[in-house]
């Protein structure tokens, strides 16, 4: 096999494998290195997203949502089920099948696009004439030479200081996705995306879930109206969320974990649980990469320093995704990966950070793009707001899920859409229309004048756009 390539990509997560494929499509010779393996020792490209993140979490969310629907809502549809039971082992087996299908899909795409795949850990060797040596340690131990290198090594979960993950009692997203049974009492530290999604999975299956959040506000990155609605719904579901909790100590035994903390009132509290999920953020994964061998600079957080086009401090070396600045989102990594491949090929890659959507796959789902109302107020931007509830949407009524609303924010003078915020059924799908509208600098009037199918959930977006001008038709 050829060991000299135009491009070598280190990491086969969403940013890496997409960058490799796009570079190959553009006629470049490409290799991609990734060390992730299945329990059987087979290559498992796809990174955190495919193996212990986006994909497995959505599989478990789907299974647990089916279970809750059967328990709570089937009767109103006239469906009798008898006594329900959840086979956690089968649920986990299905999750593993979904993950495996995605792993194999990426390997197929590499083969289809003539990307050479190397199973192992990639690291920098040294700069050489015309490029860089990249070492592969593992099953495919090799020394590759690349004219250009794309770093896409992703991120890893941040542990509490002094409290390491053992994935038995103190769990990262990895351990939380692999529980063999439903814990009676589950603690979660952090009410971000991972904490809310995994907390929701196990709550639906019967766990008593308590989430401890250090910040005084719930979901501060979301629009305040959405965050308020979400907190109300989660409280009603039985997801206990305590804000302003300052963790002082975590003690783990073989059967339980005790979290000592100070609550929002400054009073000492202790939470005893069977398992504890720690989801307090993620850190850039540069361990073993050996960036100093070629002079790639890191920032104070350990992330790789890049410019607006994802160039590192060394010409010919690029970095994308979680390992650089910006939101740690799989689709952001993909956009950067494609853009970098195109820039290497002499094209003009495009990433618009202002139109990257955010999604939380709870029930109800939460999604938004653009600026929130509180951001617009802080920036002194004059705006108009329109909001429409799913309670007034015919398709939502038929689905039996009328929670939440769509909110559209538009410039007061030009009517350009500045932000769209959704909490409700299939918000993750509905947000795509808003992203497209903002990418093309559409006005609220543009959305309002566009024909939407009836009955559909997307009509709520049209009605919210109409409401910007105080002319909603169905509310």
UniProtKB/TrEMBL annotation:
It catalyses: N(6)-[(R)-dihydrolipoyl]-L-lysyl-[protein] + NAD(+) = N(6)-[(R)-lipoyl]-L-lysyl-[protein] + NADH + H(+). Its EC number is 1.8.1.4. FAD binds at residues 58, 122, 153-155, 322, 328-331. Its cofactor is FAD. It comes from the Bacteria. GO terms for cellular component: cytoplasm. Residues 356-465 form the Pyridine nucleotide-disulphide oxidoreductase dimerisation domain. GO terms for molecular function: dihydrolipoyl dehydrogenase (NADH) activity; flavin adenine dinucleotide binding. It is found in: Cytoplasm. Keywords: Cytoplasm, FAD, Flavoprotein, NAD, Nucleotide-binding, Oxidoreductase, Redox-active center. InterPro entries: Class-I_Pyr_Nuc-Dis_Oxidored (IPR050151), FAD/NAD-bd_sf (IPR036188), FAD/NAD-binding_dom (IPR023753), FAD/NAD-linked_Rdtase_dimer_sf (IPR016156), Lipoamide_DH (IPR006258), Pyr_nuc-diS_OxRdtase (IPR001100), Pyr_nucl-diS_OxRdtase_dimer (IPR004099). Disulfide bonds join 49-54. GO terms for biological process: 2-oxoglutarate metabolic process. Binds 1 FAD per subunit. Residues 5-337 form the FAD/NAD(P)-binding domain. The keyword Transcription regulation does not apply. NAD(+) binds at residues 190-197, 213, 281. Belongs to the class-I pyridine nucleotide-disulfide oxidoreductase family. This is Dihydrolipoyl dehydrogenase. The lineage of its organism: Bacteria, Pseudomonadati, Pseudomonadota, Betaproteobacteria, Burkholderiales. The gene is lpdA.
